[in-house]
Amino acid sequence: MDPETFSKHNREQWEKLRDLPNLLYSNGTEWRLFRHGEQLGETVFFHGALKSAGEKLSPGSPAAFDALLKQFLRWTPPKITQVARLVHHIAPLCRLLRSTVLEQLDFEARSSAPDDDVRARPFTGLKNDWRRLLFPTADDATFADGYAQTITFALLLARTEGIPLEANSFHEIGRLLDADHGLMGKALQLLTDNINERFTVTLDLLTRTIAQVRWDVIRAGNRDAYLHLYEHFLTVYDPALRQQSGSYYTPLEIVEEMVRLTEEVVRTRLGQEEGFGADEVKIVDPAMGTGTFLHTIIERVAEQATDRHGPAMARDAISRLASRLFGFELQTGPFAVAELRASDMLKRYGAPLPRNGLSFFVTDTLDNPFVEEEHLASTYGALSDSRRRANQIKARTPVTAVVTNPPYDDKAEGRGGWVEKRPAGKEAPVLDAFRYPDNGRHEHMLKNMYVYFWRWATWKVFDAHPEDQHGVVCLITPSGWATGPGGRGMRDYLRRTCDEGWIINLSPEGQRAPVPSRVFPGVAQPLAIHIFVRRADAVRGPQHRARVHYREVTGRREDKFRQLRGICLDDDGWRDTHTEGPRPFTPATRSGWEEFPELSDLFPWGSPGSKANRSWVSSPSAETLRRRWARLIRETDLVEKGKLFKETRDRTLTDRRDPLPGHSASPLPVGQETETLPELTRIGLRSFDRQHLIADNRVLDYPRPGLWASLQPGQIFLNQQSSHAIDSGAAVVATHLLPDTHHFNGRGGRVLPILHPDGSANTPAALLPYLAHVLGVERVTVEDLAAYTIALAGHSGFTEHFTEELLTPGVRIPLTRERALWEKGVSLGRQVLWASTYGERCAELSAGRPPGNVEFASGEPGQVKYLSHIGNGLPDRMRYEAETQTLRIGEARFAPVPQAVWRYDVGGMGVLNKWFGYRKASPTSKKTSPLDDIHVDSWPHEWTTELIELLSVIRRLTDLAPEQSELLTDILSGGIVTVTDLTTAGVLPVAPGARKARHREAGTLFSTEIDSG
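^ thats the sequence. predicted structure below, dont judge the formating
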């Protein structure tokens, strides 16, 4: 009866029961006592067979069995005097309560009773009431979670208010809570008035456990004992829910500075000298969580009143503030903690609650605030009144300031409520204000929860109330929208609508920065604080654009907090950003950068790389892909097959798809496929990392057929980071293989093929003849232009020289007017392209560039030698010895490997570490399916060869880098072909048709333009 050996059914049962703090687990012949899922003491065994022993069934050690039963029966919940212990005890019980609700709903769904038999389906009716009263879109899982968290935190709230917690007294507890916490009190009554015996054990344990919480001890000497209560709770209760909801609570050091800076805007830009203490200033946090922003505002107003008028004034200032301070929260758990913290704070200052209680609401901020209220029974008055009051504030109450940290979820399509969509025939959704003409292919970024909250905040302060469009918004969110193409509409809206803005980049290190530098240790996304203000008295003409300021904080987490404390709105640490509507919110420069043509104008047709949306379809091992495919095809259980496949909106087991260009296709959907041998192709998964891909349109969500069709002899794909700032490594890379969507540095990018699918050059029609004329050469080819481009931008010197310019994503290329420099660039670039494509492009034997072979010859200084064998196992660690220039992988040694090769990166992505991460014993690649667990058992010999080739490629590139830097310096000091020159010559602007892939139609001699990405 060891849980480690349980079958699927028994394991599912065990996973629920292990949450009990005191569990006696037995099959009749084995008896075990568990405390919080861990066995206590030894197992007691009985003699005899359970089915036949009868009265002779007896314990092998009666004394041990007696002791076991006494330990079980004498258990009582321990006294709880620390937040960590509180979470440890209540989170598992809350989780068990949630699973009990789901079981009850499932039982009721399978009931044969008539549909209108309320007694047969009490929880179904309860769920429907819950949806009607608070959350119209709640499904079973959302309701079960809300049920469990509401009861748990209502009891915690009752305990902090000194309300006695007795078994089966929930209605009375709710009545007593109703005095100061009406919503939680009524919700507790609603959810527990008609429970059955299925819930008795869990609710009794939960009540007895919370009754042992000693809030007085927890609070002693602790400024805010509740600050991280819910965050810790959610981590234990359901880490996946925390990630799904984007619940990462803001460090107090960040909150305090955001509140301070927002109040500075209120005082200096909005004319309210008393800041948040002014009676005219209304504040809302639409993603309140546990209320840290609002509580910080309360404390700030109290401290300022004390400083100005003495301690007695704090009480009056808080009382005046409470009626104009609003908070919205979707989950009842953090809402209850917010009420608990606020109630505790008001008691500390001796301030009474407002007559109708605090204006904190359990509500979906994004729901339609104008929905017609239905009549509800008086039993539910507090709940319906809460929803009605929340909607009234959302719809009709002007607010001065929004300060918040909204949730992050980049797969939030369909969850943006009224902000995202309106009923057919109604006016356009307010989110449309963030769209930009002809930018649709990039605007998938808008389908993110934090963007929905951005739009709600800006709508509420700047748009919703024509008579009062005067206020400030301050949000800490991922910063991608401020620089990437998907945020063009947001930036244009803010420049047109607002008068001034401030952006504090908290993550200049970029994506997946070292953990010690992150302000949120668990969040890898680059973050920034964004503040925008609109003044009622400002005059805005058609050309009005807000002045937006930018700055960074750098170093370790503590360094960033210290720098934040020193920032003021009008100090001299800010730099002005670009002024044009859709341009990134990054500093404008004076280097002449703006007069260099954009790389995407030199090669106009571009595309994101191929995107599978499932990791298992690519691997550095072809054999691994064959094993994964065979495992999928041979699975007969369709539910399990769906999990293995990882079904998405765009690809399911039942889809039939056209073949990828140049490949065959099965007429069957994957769910019916019988062929166990997949068709594979080589791809560039990351810069310089050649892997294998299942070349099957049925498993690739966004294959980019235009790119597949463009694969041909002579094709080269240039790639740049078009959405995020880079500050190290090459600014442009090249490959001859089909690039993955994250090929550049794991964070997207823009692939620019040099040839169209029909074989014609991917350049503006007049560009190559114009360059030939300017340079005085007979002919310039598209390969020449690609070579020149990679010679200039394909090394770290370019990025270091233009560090500030590259804060704005997108590379620009200085085109020389001097023939000698052009020819030097083309020659140097051919060497870079040859190495970058592993000898598959720009090979020239007479120039020392043999086709298909980039390794150094025997005896050359750059030759990499394999000094000791890697062994029979699969290594899980790679390390570098600088003294001996030796790379170690497991037991293997490779040398010489110069330090520049070891450190070589592209846009901050260490190439060698990334390459090894996909191949080590426990790969670091993202897992999307159980198929990802199928991996090689030992190191394939071909990986050793590929590693030597990779080391050789990087060595050649680092050897060429000094020449590239020298060339860049020479070109920048000479004559340049500018954007103005190209515009005058009619080369620019690029014709719209040039940005589409050109295909040759079957049976014709002429190509056609098709927008196939």
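Residues 689 and 915 are 6 Å apart (CA to CA).
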